[in-house]
Amino acid sequence: MVNNSIEEIINIIRAEYIASAVKKEQFPEENLLEIAFIGRSNVGKSSLINSLTRVRNLARISGNPGKTQTINFFKLRAKFYEDSSIKDFYLVDLPGYGYAKTGQANRKKWAKFIEEYFLSSKNLYCVCQLVDSRHKPMDSDIEMFKWLIKNNIPVFVIATKIDKVSKNIVSKNIAAIRKAFGITELSVLAYSSVKNEGRSYLLDFIGDALVK
Question: What is the pTM of this model?
Answer without folding.
Answer: 0.91
